[in-house]
Amino acid sequence: MAKRFTDEECVKAFWKKVDKRGPDECWNWLGAINRKGGGYGQFGVRGFIAKAHRVSWELLYGDIPKGLMVLHKCNNPSCVNPSHLYLGSRFDIRRSRVSVIKRFEKKFTKLDSESCWEWEGARSNGGYGMIGIEGKSFAAHRVSWLLYVGAIPEGLFVLHKCDNKPCVNPSHLYVGSRCDNARDAVERTKFPIRRTSKYDAVQIRKLLDTGLEPWIIAKIFGCSESTISRAGGGHSRYRRTVNLNR
Length: 246
Ligand SMILES: [Zn+2]
Ligand SMILES: [Zn+2]
Description:
Helix 9 crosses helix 10. The chain has eleven helices and eleven strands. It folds into three domains: 88 residues, Homing Intron 3 (I-Ppo) Encoded Endonuclease, Chain A (Alpha-Beta Complex), CATH 3.90.75; 78 residues, no CATH class; 54 residues, no CATH class. The radius of gyration is 19 Å and the shape is globular. Helix content is 37%, strand content 16%. A hairpin with a 2-residue loop joins strand 8 and strand 9. The site of one zinc ion has 6 residues, from loops.
C-alpha cells in the first residue's frame, strides 16, 4: 500500500491536509472524516481512499506488518501525528477505549519514567496487579503494555526489568520468553543492558519472519537495532529494511 502514496505529489497533498502542531500535540486531519466509521480521517488519492492515520504511519515507517493495525495512543481517531500512533492487534482496539484507559490510570500514580508505577488496585496471589475488563481478569502490567506499547507477540511474556511485580510503568516492561524471566532473576542488576541470548535469537528470527521491522523488535527486546541485526544473522528481512530512512 505504501508505494501508492510515496511519490512526491501524494506526500505533498497528504501533509496539506494536516494541522501540524507541536511534536506532542495531536495533528488533526483537515480533510474528510468518516464519522460513521470511527471518526478516522480519509485520504483520497487516484480514486483510492485510505485511512489518513494509516497513510501517516506508512509514509514514515513503511508497510504495516501483516496482522497488525495502526492505533492511537491519544484516542483521537482524526490525529495523524506519527508519534501518537503505534502498531497493535485487534485485541488492543477493544482495550484502548477511553473508558478502559481512564479506569486503568485511576489505579496507579503516574510518576516520572524512572520510578515504578505501583498498582494500587487488586493483586493476584503471585503479586501482580489485576484489572477486570469486560468481565475478565487481566494482569495489569500486560494491559499496560497493550495500552502504551502495542501487541504482545504470540508465545512471549511481558516481563519486568525492575523486578517489581505490581509495577505498570511501560518503560520498566519488556517482552521476552520465560527463559528470559528465569535468567534475568539470576543475572539482574538494577537495569541491565539487555544482551540477546541464543534463545532470543530464535525468537528474533521468528519475529523477522512475521515481517516486523527490526526497530520494533529492538523495542520489544529492549536492545539496540544493531543487536537485532547481529542476532538476526543477516536475515533477508533485515537486509531489506535496514536502510529505511526514518
Ligand atoms: Zn494525537
Ligand atoms: Zn518498575
